[in-house]
Write a structure and sequence with these properties.
heterodimer, A: alpha+beta
């Protein structure tokens, strides 16, 4: 009475319809087997091989993984024993995916699904997902994860091959709801009053080809699949974190330069200039010492008001070996109009010469004002000004220059990540694009 | 209680692995034997179980929640879309439990005192929630079940009902419960789903080609 310790391979059947040979692989689990020669589904558990259905062979599809293929997938040996095509119709267009039924006599059943070259590993869910909402949309929680509703559809079985542990039927319809938390998908299938849940995980096609040692070319994945892991997953946060750290590091470096800059005043002198003074306007200052290394700042402070002046400047080394020529226009205007007080420009300015070798230097200064206006003015044009020279002043322009460069990578990453998510959701009931799910029943958002 | 007796029908020795077993079958003459006090009485004859593909058999051993068990009996049930086995487990501490195997989908459960009075068979809807211990169990499937046969030792006598209602209940964390209407009041079994790997089953059947 104790069951035979060894279970024999089930004997092949002869199709009661066409006489063709039907191989069996699912032992006595099989409740329906397909004669692929004549597209007949029969029940091998009945003595007379009761015919369950004969279906239209026009939907015939060749599976990418042949029935009977065995492989070690995710820790267990599996044999492909069943294949079915399921189809949803959106706005009159059919979208089909393929389901492979995997079987191991000890570990049981498992599924692989394939849509547009995207694969998922699907297993039955034993727990009970709980319904919730995320941002006003349907969602479910399961195993500590939250899955957002992606699509509601009526899936029709349109082609079957091999064998199944249930009574499979072409034309059978189920209401399917998919909820995603990439790379996982929770799906509920409603048949009659029952809801059955399954959990799918996105799998690289290459892993399946490796597991089943398939020689056929791996069809490329097209588009973005609902549970396809984003190539930017985790990269957006990381990019911004990197940006933040670079800013901190850069600011610290700048602070170091600012605090370590000697910022030493090495020359200061006050002058008066009158445009109406005849003769050469240029003159040279006393010689001053420029020590150490770094930049030199020349600051000009004038008492100009509603006037302008131009300074031709040269920082010249006493030995004549080095000279820096530069110029600055200073203009300052102010007034009052219907909008109130206004000003334009500044009465002072400064020039930073980035690298000046140590030495003894002097300045040649040639101020210039509006000669024509000066000639017409009663007292001519004149100004007082002060020249201050400092060695090794702190500068922050490098920091501000770097900022827009540093911010480019995180911004680009964020934009591309958002683009990927838009593509993902375009196929959903909530897509904005021309995806397949635009016919969502409107009550989803209630 | 004695663990050895003779079959009242054919006289063959009948040994019990579990001292509390109530029903068994004579391995020689296939008499269904029920134990009343110390006597064995023949109450019928077992029919051969139809072939099945469970990897489990009598004397299969395994582990559940760190307790070792041996399979000492089974009941075979069928429903509209298939059949399954309830394997009777004898744990090392002499307690008994059940390993259900439905298309190589496994769950272990234990007879549990019902904390509430269950509604009558026709009045239990899918979706109804019961609190058992710490967990909320929701009725997910209602199945009309037919008893097919048994083998080995059982803790009770098998039902004489033609068919009865069985309600499956689940929780958010993959526990499960069954309300079994084969008796009145109904029996409650609670437990959880288990993977084939975690049960560490040994002395399994072999499958040709695997």
């Amino acid at each position: 009475m104790v069951a035979a310790s060894r279970v024999p391979v089930p004997a092949a059947l002869n199709c009661p319809n066409c006489g063709g040979v039907i191989e069996l692989r699912g032992f006595s689990h099989t409740r329906s087997a397909v004669c692929i020669q004549c597209c007949t589904i029969l029940d091998p558990s009945t003595p007379d091989l009761k015919i369950l259905q004969q279906f239209d062979e026009r939907m015939r599809v060749a599976p990418l993984i042949p029935l009977g293929t065995r492989g070690t997938f995710r820790g267990a040996k599996y044999e492909v024993i069943g294949f079915q095509v399921r189809t949803i119709y959106v706005d009159g267009t059919a979208y089909s995916w393929h389901e492979y039924l995997l079987f191991n006599p000890f570990a049981g059943f498992r599924y692989l699904t394939q849509y547009d070259g995207h694969w998922s590993d699907v297993q039955t869910v034993h727990g009970l997902p709980t319904y919730t909402q995320v941002a006003g949309r349907k969602a479910v929680q399961y195993g500590g994860r939250t899955y957002r509703h992606f699509q509601n559809a009526t899936a029709e079985t349109t082609f079957v091959m091999g064998e199944f542990p249930w009574a499979v039927q072409v034309g059978e319809e189920n209401t399917v709801d998919d909820y995603i938390d990439p790379p996982n998908m929770l799906s509920s299938e409603r048949t009659g009053g029952e809801i059955n849940w399954s959990l799918g995980t996105y799998v690289a096609g290459a892993e399946i080809w490796q597991a089943f040692q398939l020689k056929s070319p791996l069809p490329p994945a097209r588009g973005v699949f609902s549970t396809q892991p984003s190539p930017f997953a985790g990269k957006v946060g990381k990019a911004w974190k990197t940006f933040l750290w670079l800013c901190v590091a850069w600011a610290a470096l700048m602070a170091f330069f600012v605090f370590s800059a000697s910022n030493k005043e090495i020359f200061r002198s006050r002058y008066h200039f009158s445009q109406s003074t005849p003769g050469e306007h240029s003159f040279v200052t006393d010689v001053f010492n420029v020590e150490g290394h770094g930049n030199v700042e020349v600051e000009l402070r004038t008492d100009l008001s509603n006037n302008w002046a131009y300074f031709n400047l040269a920082l010249l080394r006493e030995d004549g070996a080095q000279g820096f020529d530069f110029g600055r226009e200073i203009s300052y205007y102010k007034g009052r109009d219907s909008d109130g007080d206004w000003t334009e420009g500044k009465a002072q300015d400064s020039v930073v010469l980035p690298r000046v070798p140590a030495g003894r230097y002097y300045l040649r200064i040639e101020p210039e004002m509006d000669a024509q206006a000066s000639a017409q003015a009663a007292a001519g044009m004149a100004m007082s000004y002060e020249v201050v020279v400092r060695r090794d002043v702190p500068t922050s322009w490098l920091f501000w220059l770097a900022l827009p460069l540093l911010i480019i990578p995180p911004v680009v990453t964020s934009v591309r990540a958002a683009g990927f998510e838009t593509q993902r959701w375009a196929e959903s009931d909530y897509g904005t694009g021309s995806g397949s799910g635009s016919s969502s029943d409107g009550d989803d958002d209630e | 209680m004695s663990r050895a007796a003779n079959c009242p029908a054919c006289g063959a020795p009948v040994t019990f692995a579990w001292s509390s077993a109530v029903q068994t079958a004579c391995p020689f003459c296939k008499a269904v034997l029920v134990r009343h006090d110390v006597d064995l009485a023949k109450v019928g004859e077992v029919a051969d179980l139809p072939p099945d593909s469970s990897p489990i058999q009598i004397m299969t051993e395994g582990v559940f929640d760190n307790r070792r068990f041996t399979v000492i009996g089974r009941i075979r049930y069928e429903w509209e879309q298939g059949n399954w086995n309830e394997w009777h487990l004898l744990f090392n501490d002499q307690t008994s439990g059940w390993l259900s195997d439905s298309q190589a989908d496994y769950a272990v459960s234990f007879l549990t005192a019902a904390p509430v009075a269950f509604p009558a068979a026709g009045e239990l809807p899918v979706g109804r929630v019961f609190q058992f211990g710490e967990s909320q169990f929701q009725v997910t499937h209602l199945t009309q079940v037919r008893y097919v046969g048994f083998e080995g030792e059982l803790p009770f006598t098998t039902t004489d009902q033609e068919s009865f209602l069985s309600a499956d209940l689940r929780t958010v964390d993959a526990r499960f419960a069954t309300i079994d209407y084969s008796e009145n009041p109904p029996l409650l079994f609670t437990g959880r789903f288990a993977t084939f790997e975690e049960l560490k089953l040994t002395n399994l059947r072999e499958f040709e080609g695997w």
